[in-house]
């Protein structure tokens, strides 16, 4: 793995940590063109009360604003968790070249774990590079959900 890819995934992890600090599922994402981050985001579904406020959607939206185009050709996306079907669809529609992700998502992953949406013959097929800093991404997610489970009131009286 290149130092460049690791650097951008570390930036995505820092955003995921911000999400966790706000009580959001810790997923962070950056969109990069060349060596410049043109978009970034972390999960804000609870904060914004919006189902589409996933890290990838927010990062893609910001990149479109910065680059003044919905076509993100020449851009790479770095995200700490394997994208869901909604985010994979946004990646296809934005024409992102490559997707680097950390942890696999066995419940909703749409690149490897549940389905490979990019294999379905859509008009664009990004390259997938999975497992980038996967241990760090997995630890952050596991700690977050362990904390949530511990905070739930006991069913026993």
Overview of the molecule:
With 157 residues, the protein is α/β, with parallel strands linked by helices. It is 41% helix and 19% strand. It has helices at residues 3-21, 45-48, 55-67, 85-94, 134-151, and strands at residues 28-33, 36-42, 75-81, 98-103, 127-130. Strands 2-1-3-4-5 form a 5-stranded mixed sheet. The mean pLDDT is 94.
SS elements, strand count: 5
Helices, by number, come to: 5
Q: pLDDT below 50 for ≥5 consecutive residues: which ranges?
A: none
Mean pLDDT: 94
* Structural class designation: alpha/beta
Helix content: 40-55%
As laid out across the biggest beta sheet, the strand order is: 2-1-3-4-5
H/E element order: HEEHHEHEEH
- Tell me what portion of residues adopts beta-strand conformation: 15-25%
**Largest sheet features:** 5 strands, mixed
Q: In angstroms, what separates the terminal alpha carbons?
A: 51 Å
Net shape: globular
- Cα Rg: 15 Å
Structural topology:
Elements: H1 3-21, E1 28-33, E2 36-42, H2 45-48, H3 55-67, E3 75-81, H4 85-94, E4 98-103, E5 127-130, H5 134-151
Parallel strand pairs: 3-4, 4-5
Antiparallel strand pairs: 1-2, 1-3
Helix pairs in contact: 1-5, 3-4
Defining traits:
alpha/beta
Summarize the structure.
With 157 residues, the chain is α/β, with parallel strands linked by helices. It contains five helices and five strands.
